[in-house]
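discrete fold record:
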Amino acid sequence: MRPSEQPTRQLSEGKAISQRSCPSFPAWFPILVAAILIMAGCGYRFSPGGEHIDPGIRKVFLEPFGNRTSEANVEDTFRLAMTDQFVKGKRFQIVDGEDQADALFRGTVKALATTPLSYRTTNLAAEERMTLTVELTFEERRTRKIIWKDENFTGTQEYPVASLSDTETSRKNALSKLANDTAERAYRMLMSGF
């Protein structure tokens, strides 16, 4: 049927409308179109390269971390893990003193708690969870402008509880892994601006 021969229907006002049929799409098609439009229009993107950080900030000094817990040297364990993340990231150069730095990274271990996860039949813990809470700040040295800060950054790690000597070894290994994992997440958050 040619366009001029299409059937028409008269409206009450005397205007004619075409009775063409609309193309038929699967039911999921509008959802797909909406999802594509939302993703294309959304400005969200993960920028682990630190694009939001001034490119002039290249040298970083990690200040000695504070420790508000009863766990000896936990601040050093976490500071070392954080230093490793800055080195692995290759975006910054670690310097030995504040006066050489463009930016400062501060940290304080606020809490380190251990809670039982599962029990043996003797009511002794079979597995425990260690939770680390730290306060972290990354700021420009000269202006003291805060680039990134999290006052309650938390990480957790589980470990088995066996004999006393094995448990202490498991706990030390868990603390080391917890510090490394938490430092890695913190560095990613800092670099992405979250």
